Amino acid sequence: MTLVAAMTRPHAEALASAPLDLTQLVNERSANVFTRRPMSIDMSDPGHGHSPAAWTAVIIMLVAFTIGTTAFFFDLPWLVWASVGLLIAGVVVGYVMSKVGYGVNTMTAAPHGH
User: Among 42, 44, 57, 50, which residue's Cα sits nearest to residue 109?
Assistant: First the structure.
């Protein structure tokens, strides 16, 4: 008997002795999808990033980073520095929006409850 046959033989015998019921396995898995707790954080915890201020600030800063990276690639130093200014403006916009009432702790909009 070869080594491969010796190693696979117990597994083959175990599979042959136990009947495999795929429908039961699928039904158990699909039932668990709706009864399991989600892996995300509880939405009653304010956390971070779940506000219009955070989304706006991040979008502005991502645009600034994209422009700055492209300008750096094309050797346009004035546009690189302009994108740094836009990045700082994104931070300021996020801060101001959070103080006005669009932040996590002072959210004026009703949560959607996803």
Answer: 50
pTM of the model: 0.55
Residue 110 forms part of a structural domain: no
| Region class of 113: left (phi > 0), else alpha (psi between -120 and 50), else beta | left
Rounded CA-CA distance 42/110 in Å is 16
- Which structural domain, as residue segments, surrounds residue 87? 52-102
**Which residue in 93, 84, 88, 89 sits closest to 66, CA to CA?**
84
Domain count within the chain: 1
* pLDDT score for 9: 56
- 23 part of a folded domain: no
What values do phi and psi take at 62, rounded to 5?
A: -65, -40
